[in-house]
Automatic annotation (TrEMBL):
Protein name per Swiss-Prot or TrEMBL: Ketosynthase family 3 (KS3) domain-containing protein
Domain Ketosynthase family 3 (KS3): 5-419
Matching PANTHER family: FATTY ACID SYNTHASE (PTHR43775), SI:DKEY-61P9.11 (PTHR43775:SF37)
Record key words, sorted: Phosphopantetheine, Phosphoprotein, Transferase
Source species: Planobispora longispora
Taxonomic superkingdom: Bacteria
Similarity annotation: Belongs to the thiolase-like superfamily. Beta-ketoacyl-ACP synthases family.
SMART domains the UniProt entry points to: PKS_KS
Length: 546
């Protein structure tokens, strides 16, 4: 069954996660079963400013999803002074940076894009500001723009985006709700490309309480008998979205299709404000399936909210079973996972991180193992669901997944993700190609060349037409430039590294002159490559502590 005309294409993804500086590394870590939750040493905790009373508290959880360099930033790249950067919430800096990376991954230079680009962000509480206020000068004035409300607006301002810029704040479901809001704005033609996601920067200042959200060792044991919550962590995840038919017409690389989505609230039908509601969760899953025009039997994997708490997991699975009851399935038919077992709870970024995992799963045909699952929680009735303890090959005609994210206070979001249709086969590229690379500084240019060479060397099946098209049509040209002329990937790698390659260099003179002219500041004067956007390394930001 082909996706409906009002489906949304995922055309780019970017992020930084505990243990993973980018999306490709995140996927490798998921497949390798990496537990990225960090156990902090006492020295690390003291360096973070954790106080003596909390350090001495036996309930203090000394673990969390750590994001190295979370407070470092390339202010020059975004045209900011050091003082402006220092006053900005680190979460806003991270979201801004990864929004640019997501646009690059989509092959979109916003200055050249013919249409409106919207931004939809979810952010956690600005803990950086709070810690400064509580521990610094009490007479320090409030800084305008410090609140989570401003992450989308800062991104729109710094990147020159003129579509809707909207903060979406629904606690842990913020970023997945932001994706739903962005998708609807695209369908309503309020924008033509949308950036949607979330960010959270936090520190290990949490205590374990029985029945609470934070486990004693910081590990999330979703759906397991030993589940006692998890640890909070830092991370950022951003997706670039377009209307499916526009993406197809523009020959964008389509990573996956968002076929349906829904957002709702539990209302008062639950034990308390902080308690999850079974009917509300079941309702939002059923509504998303209906929006997608699918029955539950079409879903092979559900990336759950998966908080790892006894009550939360039992209610979530019961809600899924209720939503799937309209299409009875045999036990073990649908895989069930939670990225929180790998990363911890990324709070406002959690839903977008889960969505990225689901996109990668339907794209690559693998459901990653769920960590820390040894014995099923006794209060969980799994019905058609099963928790994979090893990577599972996902072999079906069309792979589809559901993604859930639930916010404290009852705002629930669910998205249906579908495998993108494969494009027609193309002959391998031949002949000569120009690969232009640029950056804002000489050091960034050197790093960009090295990263591109590493990427091409690691992916020997990459088509040079796609590489040339992405670099020419999908990346902004900065002041410091170089351009190489090559015939194949091996030659491209060698010339990017500045190494000799094979026979005497006999590139066509007109291409060589065009490459030299562009490197000197001119416009591209070589024939356009007949390629599509392909994932290449993002800009090498020159981050410094601010």
């Amino acid at each position: 069954m082909s996706p409906p005309e009002d489906a949304i294409a995922v055309v780019g993804m970017a992020g930084r996660f505990p243990g993973a500086p980018d999306v490709p590394t995140l996927w490798r870590n998921l497949l390798d079963g990496v537990d990225a939750v960090h156990d902090y040493t006492e020295a690390e905790l003291r360096a973070l400013g954790v106080g003596e009373r909390l350090l001495a508290d036996p309930a203090h959880v000394r673990a969390g999803g750590r994001l190295p360099g979370a407070t470092a930033f390339d202010a020059d790249f975004f045209g900011m002074t050091a003082d402006e950067a220092a006053a900005m919430d680190p979460q806003q800096r991270l979201f801004l940076e990864q929004s640019w990376a997501a646009l690059e991954d989509a092959g979109c230079d916003p200055a050249a894009f013919d249409g409106l680009i919207g931004v939809f962000s979810g952010s956690s509480v600005n803990r950086h500001f709070l810690y400064r206020q509580f521990t610094g000068d009490p007479d320090e004035p409030l800084v305008p723009g410090f609140a989570p409300d401003y992450a989308a607006a800062q991104t729109a301002y710094r990147l020159g985006l003129t579509g809707p810029a909207m903060a979406v704040q629904t606690a842990c479901s913020s970023s997945l709700t932001a994706v739903c809001v962005a998708a609807q704005h695209l369908l309503d033609y309020r924008c033509d490309l949308a950036l949607a996601g979330g960010v959270s920067v936090t520190e290990p200042r949490f205590r374990h309480t029985p029945g609470g959200l934070v486990s004693p060792d910081g590990r999330c044991r979703a759906f397991d008998a030993a589940g006692q919550g998890g640890a909070y962590g830092s991370g950022v995840a951003v997706l670039a979205l377009r209307r499916l038919r526009d993406a197809a017409e523009s020959r964008d690389r389509i990573l996956a299709v968002l076929r349906g989505w829904a957002v709702g609230n539990d209302g008062a039908r639950r034990a308390g404000f902080a308690a999850p509601g079974l009917d509300g969760q079941a309702g939002v899953v059923a509504e998303a399936l209906a929006d997608a025009g699918l029955t539950p039997g079409a879903i092979g994997f559900v990336e759950a909210h998966g908080s790892g708490t006894a009550v939360g997991d039992a209610i979530e699975v019961a809600a899924l079973v209720q939503a799937f009851s309209a299409d009875p399935l045999p036990p073990g038919t649908v895989a069930l996972g939670s990225i929180k077992t790998n990363l911890g709870n990324l709070d406002a970024a959690a839903g977008a991180a889960s969505l990225i995992k689901a996109v990668l799963a339907v794209r690559h045909g693998v459901v990653p193992a769920n960590l820390h699952f040894e014995r099923a929680a006794p209060d969980v009735e799994f019905g058609p669901f099963s928790v994979p303890v090893k990577n599972v090959a996902w072999e079906t005609e069309t792979r589809r997944a559901g993604v859930s994210s639930f916010g404290l206070g009852g705002t629930n979001a669910h998205v249906i993700v579908e495998q993108a249709a494969g494009g027609p086969p193309r002959p391998a590229s031949t002949g000569w190609h120009v690969l232009p690379v640029s950056a804002r500084t000489p050091e960034a240019l050197r790093q960009a060349r090295t990263r591109l060479a590493d990427c091409l060397e690691a992916a020997p099946r990459t088509d040079l037409d796609d590489v040339a098209h992405t670099l020419t049509a999908g990346r902004r040209a900065f002041a410091h430039r170089t351009a190489i002329v090559c015939r194949d990937l091996a030659e491209a790698v060698a010339r990017l590294r500045g190494l000799p390659y094979g026979a005497p260099y006999d590139a066509p003179e007109d291409l060589t002159r065009a490459a030299e002219g562009w490197a000197a500041g001119g416009e591209p004067a070589w024939p356009p490559a007949d390629g599509r956007v392909v994932s290449l390394p993002a800009y090498p930001f020159q981050r410094q502590e601010v």
